[in-house]
Write a sequence for this structure.
């Protein structure tokens, strides 16, 4: 996992370049000889074979995650505070009741990042077809946060800072072997 | 083009200005262009969809097809279809 600051004026071009810089660093750290990440026609970053990866950025920071051998990876960073109205849109009633504080341990921003990261990790599973990120279900099992859509699941890791939520989903060959952790 | 579609497109553009930091993004986006591919963040898309519920008086179905949310054109078409 690597980060890169987005320089002024913090626009789309600067965000794109910072994302590719973070991706190149993450690929280097993972042992990849190939460090470039071209853009697919749909905008998706194309990581080298055998080095699944994902990129996310805000106007100030880009982050990239690479997991050698994984089937897919999804990462998301989210700075936007979610209003209750927006949370009610992208979270189902059960997700709000069980996962948000005070019963749960997450903020709405954490769970938005979680669904986005899971979507990136699951979006190109051929059997799932087209779907929207908020249609993914979030649940907990033995303290682990899990994203599920049409029978496919992926584990999530969440990190929550004062001004930023970060989530990563790693799919290893159609099953998951991890546990989510929320850290401060 | 039906008048309801024209009005819906204009209203969606106004909502986009409100939820995505001014007119600079909206002014550069054609009605048929993918909003996500044009650079609209997912947070802004969700804010737009919530604003549309309030402005047009409906609720998005859980199983809304992704293509309905692709562009200003498709969003306006969805609104117009609901009103027909």
């Amino acid at each position: 996992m690597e980060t890169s600051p987005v320089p002024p004026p913090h626009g789309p071009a600067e965000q794109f370049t910072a994302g590719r810089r973070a991706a190149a660093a993450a690929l280097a750290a993972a042992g990849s000889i190939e460090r470039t990440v071209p853009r697919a026609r749909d905008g998706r970053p194309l990581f080298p074979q055998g080095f699944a990866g994902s990129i996310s950025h805000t106007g100030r920071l880009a982050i990239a995650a690479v997991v050698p051998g994984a089937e897919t990876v999804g990462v998301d960073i989210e700075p936007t505070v979610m209003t209750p109205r927006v949370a009610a849109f992208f979270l189902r009633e059960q997700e709000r009741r069980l996962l948000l504080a005070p019963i749960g341990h997450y903020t709405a921003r954490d769970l938005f990042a979680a669904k986005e990261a899971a979507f990136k990790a699951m979006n190109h599973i051929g059997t799932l077809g087209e779907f929207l990120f908020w249609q993914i279900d979030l649940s907990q099992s033995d303290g682990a946060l899990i994203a599920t859509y049409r029978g496919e699941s992926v584990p999530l890791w969440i990190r929550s800072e004062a001004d930023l939520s970060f989530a990563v989903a790693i799919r290893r060959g159609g099953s998951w072997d991890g546990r989510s952790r929320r850290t401060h | 083009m039906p008048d309801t579609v024209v009005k819906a497109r204009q209203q969606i553009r106004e909502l986009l200005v409100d939820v995505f930091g001014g007119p600079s993004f909206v002014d550069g986006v054609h009605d048929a262009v993918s909003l996500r591919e044009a650079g609209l963040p997912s947070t802004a898309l969700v804010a737009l969809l919530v604003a549309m519920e309030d402005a047009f008086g409906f609720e998005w179905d859980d199983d809304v097809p992704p293509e309905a949310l692709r562009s200003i054109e498709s969003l306006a078409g969805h609104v117009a279809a609901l009103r027909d």
